[in-house]
Amino acid sequence: MIRILILEDDMVLAAHLSQTIQKLGYSVTGIEKNGENALLHFRQYLPQLVLVDIGLHGKINGIETVKRIQEIDAIKAIYLTGNTDEDSFEKAKTTRPLAFISKPFQPVELERTLALAAEQILFEPERAKTEPEENATFLKDRIFVRTQNKLVKLLFDDIYYVEADRNYAKIHTKSESILVVCPLKMLDQKLPVRQFVRIHRSFLVNISKLDAVADHFLEINNITLPISKQHKQELLKNLNTLS
């Protein structure tokens, strides 16, 4: 299910968009009415698509907001616009938007535009399955991941746990989370097996960072994660090896 952020300062229109989008089967991560809140929202919820008003009021307009989000990580944009002036169009093009929708929008136009956007968003992770090394490079004690348009070093010892997100994965350190175009299965195969253990189909943990282990869950960095039955024995075996 595609995760969509609505960035619109007309709250009546935003609420209508949200209802329409959810009826079409997509997930709305939230509604924000200014760029500053949109940046915070993106870091927390990692939407895959932003439906954004070009003429957004506030310190930064819709185009500038998309640019700043794209500096954090890749996101697709569909612009909503009440005017079609050439200057705005040319500036918006620099963010490689998927589409422009004129206000007032037509339900059929919105439905078709979102369907095309979903196809593009879902296709990219499939392609990434065959090209994972472009987004994650593994060395003896570290991994380099592509984020914010650059390769960032992460020492294995700094990784607390990894969370599956469809064909992506979120790598969690003590203070941040980084979304990478690399499935959890591949990270499981590449990270050191004595240090990183699968505890659930959606989680891989660094066992040196564990705070507590119970029958059905564990605690790590003040976060509670589930332990599945099929992975529990492997976890306990590795913990015994450590002791």
What are the SSEs and their pairings?
Elements: E1 3-7, H1 11-23, E2 27-32, H2 35-45, E3 49-53, H3 62-72, E4 76-81, H4 86-93, E5 99-102, H5 107-129, E6 136-138, E7 142-147, E8 150-155, E9 159-165, E10 168-173, E11 177-180, H6 184-190, E12 196-200, E13 203-206, E14 210-213, E15 217-220, E16 223-226, H7 229-242
Parallel strand pairs: 1-2, 1-3, 3-4, 4-5
Antiparallel strand pairs: 6-7, 7-8, 9-10, 9-13, 10-11, 12-13, 14-15, 15-16
Helix pairs in contact: 2-3
Helix percent reads 25-40%
Query: Would you count the extended β strands for me?
Result: 16
Largest sheet: 5 strands, parallel
Q: Poorly predicted ranges (pLDDT <50, ≥5 residues)?
A: 126-134
Class from helix and strand fractions? alpha/beta
Rg, please? 20 Å
- General shape: elongated
Overall mean pLDDT stands at 86
Strand arrangement, major sheet: 2-1-3-4-5
Q: Quick summary of this structure?
A:
With 243 residues, the protein is of the alpha/beta class. It has 7 helices and 16 strands.
What does this molecule look like?
It is a single chain. By secondary structure, the chain is an alpha/beta fold. Helices cover 36% and strands 33% of the residues. The strands form four sheets. It has a five-stranded parallel β-sheet, with helices on both faces. Strands 11-10-9-13-12 form a five-stranded antiparallel β-sheet. A three-stranded antiparallel β-sheet has the order 6-7-8, with no helix packed on it. Helix 2 (35-45) runs parallel beside helix 3 (62-72). It starts with a strand and ends with a helix. Residues 126-134 have low confidence and may be disordered.
